[in-house]
Specification:
Bound molecules: flavin mononucleotide
Number of helices: 16
CATH architecture: Alpha-Beta Barrel
Radius of gyration: 20 Å
Structural class: alpha/beta
Helix content: 40-55%
Number of domains: 1
Distance between the termini: 53 Å
CATH topology: TIM Barrel
CATH class: Alpha Beta
Largest sheet: 8 strands, parallel
Strand content: 5-15%
């Protein structure tokens, strides 16, 4: 058993154990990958204060996200094709999140369906919605999430159209993979992945195949997705979705203060400051840089979460100290899943919990709810002065 000390250890194993096309799908950003890179390097620019002779006993990371109890302010982000990183990946990740006491968010583009994940978990999870042109399908999808007792709808706003990731085109990304000679050669070195995948029936987009007329297999799915994501999404449609859902709504993919104000006016329960992990608008600001101006624009009336670039508990601490109420991890838990399945996701969460706990203590804090700007050192002009 390898000794896992950090998310990078899991990332190395993920790369070794998962087919190249799925590892690359995870570990890439759009176009030049500038925003993908800066999501992590900008976290490094913020420093943590170190305080001494402060009682460090009785620490707690427990808090709330949208009024729901969480063991630490870290949710699992919605990640498409999670069930291709490891067989039954969404079920495994949801179980690990449930055992840990943090929210799991199921992507619309998951392999395991809403019903499948609900059947294998005991606590409610969150469902992430992509808005589609097919209103009939959209309505049924929302109803299915209601029936599964999902406790929040996370509506993603930054993927009406797709940013290009070069590697996905070069690798011929598909689910399940098409067996070209290059793919077969790669799979020969990833046999555990293959054996597990042969043992599951979950190898297609579970929320779509069989639920949309005319989509019976994935060969037509790429075409369908490109046609179906709604490029005409606007705030009025978001309001309609909110009405239809009737429960807590989180709007994901906000990067601009003006949009944050619009989201606040719609009356959502929280926003996620996010650039989709650098997978959409290349050249956009990193999330951690975008956070402060957004917090100022919404003025404390709206719960603000953040994702993109979090690879450690120190990063979580920096986001919380900057003013986010909660965070999400995408690649950090996928590395765990690809490395070691459900146990790997649990390990990723434990790595982050420990880093967060110890780093928080060194800033002189014992309760995550009391952490504020005094815990960090932010370089002058960090948010940038843009014209
Ligand atoms: C492989 C992959 C697939 C993703 N699929 C989705 C998705 O289906 N829906 C969604 O809202 N966001 C999706 N995202 C974005 C994540 O929810 C999240 O915003 C991002 O991963 C955060 O950045 P991080 O990976 O640096 O933590 C995906 C991200 C990755 C890496």
């Amino acid at each position: 058993m390898p000794v896992i000390t950090c998310i990078d250890d899991l990332k190395r194993l993920h790369k070794r154990r998962t087919p190249k096309m799925f590892y690359d799908y995870c570990e890439s950003g759009s176009w030049t990958e500038q925003t993908f890179r800066e999501n992590t390097t900008d976290f490094d620019r913020i420093r943590l204060r170190q305080r001494v002779a402060v009682n460090m006993e009785g620490r707690t990371l427990a808090t709330k996200m949208i009024g729901q109890d969480v063991a630490m302010p870290v949710a699992l982000a919605p990640v498409g094709l999670t069930g291709m990183q490891r067989a039954d990946g969404e079920i495994k990740a949801a179980k690990a999140a449930e055992a840990f006491g943090v929210p799991f968010t199921l992507s619309t583009m998951s392999i395991c369906s809403i019903e499948d994940v609900a059947e294998h978990t005991t606590k409610p999870f969150w469902f992430q919605l992509y808005t589609m042109k097919d209103q009939d399908y959209l309505g049924r999808l929302i109803q299915r999430a209601k029936d599964a007792k999902c406790s929040a709808l996370v509506v993603t706003l930054d993927l009406q159209i797709l940013g290009q990731r070069h590697k996905d085109l070069k690798n011929g990304l598909s689910a399940p993979p098409k067996l070209t000679p290059a793919v077969i050669a790669d799979l020969m070195t990833k046999w555990t992945w293959g054996i597990e995948m042969l043992q599951t029936r979950r190898r297609q987009f579970g929320n779509i195949v069989g639920h949309v007329q005319g989509v019976k297999d994935t060969s037509r799915l790429g075409e369908w997705t490109a046609q179906q994501f709604d490029p005409a999404l606007d705030w009025k449609k978001i309001e309609e979705i909110k009405e239809q859902w009737g429960g807590p709504v989180i709007l994901k993919g906000i990067l601009d203060p003006e949009d944050a104000v619009m989201a606040k006016n719609v009356g959502c329960d929280a926003i996620v400051v996010s650039n989709h992990g650098g997978r959409q608008q290349d050249g956009a600001l990193s999330s951690i840089r975008a956070l402060d101006p957004i917090l100022q624009a919404v003025g404390g009336d709206l719960e603000v979460h953040l994702d993109s670039g979090i690879r450690s508990g120190q990063d979580v601490l920096k986001a919380i100290a900057m003013g986010a109420k909660g965070t999400y991890i995408g690649r950090a838990f996928i590395h765990g899943l690809g490395a070691m399945g459900q146990e790997g996701v649990a390990t990723a969460l434990e790595v982050i919990r420990k880093e967060l706990d110890i780093s928080m203590a060194f800033t002189g804090n014992r309760d995550i709810n009391a952490v504020d700007r005094s815990a960090i050192l932010v370089p002058e002009g960090f948010a940038g002065r843009w014209e």
